[in-house]
Design a protein that fits this description.
The structure is a homodimer of 209-residue chains.
Chain A lengths: L6 H19 L4 E2 L1 H8 L3 H9 L11 E2 H12 L5 E6 L3 H8 L1 H5 L2 E8 L8 E2 L2 E5 L3 H10 L7 E4 L3 H13 L4 E4 L12 E4 L2 H10 L1
Parallel strand pairs in A: 3-4, 3-7, 4-6, 7-8, 8-9
Antiparallel strand pairs in A: 1-2, 5-6
Helix pairs in contact in A: 1-4, 2-3
Chain lengths: 209, 209
């Protein structure tokens, strides 16, 4: 994906993609920027500006071809370039994310889960195996050597008390991106990036505005 | 909470609160803005600016009193003013959010869940009862009349195919804020606010930057 696209534009483009998917399901061949803008309660000119990033062009009077615009967004945001990821913590949240059908469509390929609960180990979740946390480094190495897949992303959904230790296992396994759903600020080396999925902050920001 | 605080500042203050909670657990009585800044890999001056919003003052050489700063953030962000909320969809994600111990600490009081699975109805999840979706309006009215609690917030974690119908039930039950975790752009009246928890967008923004 081009690094020129702002985070806000990426998030809007994903919402346009949701709308376009829904239009296709309903058999709507065309959609206008006004229709998208109204659904999202944003300005029409913003929608047109974002869509211009895809180099998609609308026809006057009928709008954009739904199927083509959907494909353009997929190309722009690079959904086809699947990125391999682990999930640490196979509780409710980890399970929900593992089953998130969207993720594969949007380029996030979850290949294994890790947990310390003996009852969960070696079971499958949405077709993905659950390993003990102690095997993280081993599984990562195996993926790289045998399956030629470098796993650089991990989704952290372990309990708060296990968060920092898990982060250290991830660093040891050469994970470069940690998507952190725990309420813990992780201490990691400079070259490891952490994205804090701050649900509490999102909620407070939302109900405060 | 003051409407003057930006969304970004709110999210940083929540992260400081996580750090302070951890410090208290470890028995650290003081923390400096530099220590917070280093953990979050952000600028020290940003931390001091945010903390100034709380009217908390540090002592030179020792830093901020952990317990006092934690309390100041709680007051600033209004954690004590509990807001009542429903969760629609008691699957993995809904269950994870219902069990999210943090939410109550940060002012979000989940009082009931709704689902259409007969096996789940009338069971308890983290002490909260699961009702059929058809009872949403009734439960909301009961909360207002009997328990004197106006429920204005709903968390939507139903399957995509049920999202718009659920949103319409919420509008009918006079919910004013919908925290939408589904991959669907909801069509709702002007006075209902929707916050799209765009996990896919957050992921793409994170790994693109």
């Amino acid at each position: 994906m081009s690094a020129q696209i702002s985070g806000k534009a990426i998030k809007r483009l994903i919402l346009y993609h949701y709308i376009l998917s829904d239009c296709l399901l309903k058999g709507n061949e065309y959609i206008s920027s006004q229709q998208i803008a109204e659904l999202l309660k944003i300005d029409d000119s913003q929608v047109r500006k974002d869509i211009a990033l895809c180099a998609a062009s609308g026809k006057s009077n009928v709008g954009y071809n739904t199927k083509e615009l959907k494909k353009s967004i997929e190309q722009l945001l690079g959904f086809k370039a699947q990125k391999a990821a682990f999930i640490l913590g196979a509780g409710n949240l980890g399970s929900a994310l593992a089953k998130h059908t969207d993720f594969a469509d949007y380029g996030l390929d979850i290949i294994a889960l890790f947990d310390n609960d003996p009852a969960k180990i070696d079971t499958l979740l949405n077709g993905k195996k659950i390993y003990p946390l102690s095997e993280l480094h081993h599984v990562a190495t195996h993926e790289q050597l045998v399956n030629k897949r470098k796993v650089e992303i991990a989704i952290l959904t372990v309990p708060a008390s296990a968060a920092q230790n898990s982060a250290e296992l991830l660093v040891h396994a050469q994970i470069k991106y940690i998507w952190n759903f725990t309420p813990v600020v992780l201490s990691v080396p400079e070259d490891v990036r952490v994205c804090n999925e701050n649900l509490v902050g999102n909620f407070l920001d939302f109900t405060n505005s």
